């Protein structure tokens, strides 16, 4: 019975803490892996899955995962793509006439700009 009560209390505390986070809040899980709070799913998510969800829900075109940017004349405001670099991948969003890291447009959490290839997209 004590274990059940402890489990319920831990669940409630975790649920209350999760409700306090904004969409895109980044945290480390027990293993030290980055996880993102996704308000649409009301759950913690892997960063790449969070990006995929954002690209699907975004009302503009998603160019998918690419290693070369599409032709400038074919791109529209708010289009997204995941740029694949040797250092990793990074979600990009076309905003104000140029490609930017999606986090620089959406302002989720600074940790996104340090994830995967994001620190290297402008090298």
Continuous helix count: 3
Percent strand equals 25-35%
SSE arrangement, N to C: HEEEHEEEEH
What ranges have pLDDT less than 50 throughout 5 or more consecutive residues?
Answer: none
How would you explain this protein's 3D organization?
With 123 residues, the chain is of the alpha+beta class. The chain has one domain (2-120). The protein contains three helices and seven strands. It has a four-stranded mixed beta sheet with strand order 4-5-6-7. Strands 1-2-3 form a three-stranded antiparallel beta sheet. The chain is elongated, with a radius of gyration of 17 Å. The termini are far apart. The mean pLDDT is 89.
Identify the notable features of this structure and list them briefly:
about 120 residues, four-stranded mixed sheet, three-stranded antiparallel sheet, elongated
Brief characterization of the structure:
The protein contains 3 helices and 7 strands, in the order H-E-E-E-H-E-E-E-E-H. The protein has 123 residues and is an alpha+beta fold. It has one domain.
What layout of secondary structure does this protein have?
Elements: H1 2-19, E1 26-28, E2 34-38, E3 43-45, H2 47-57, E4 62-66, E5 80-85, E6 88-95, E7 98-101, H3 102-106
Parallel strand pairs: 4-5
Antiparallel strand pairs: 1-2, 2-3, 5-6, 6-7
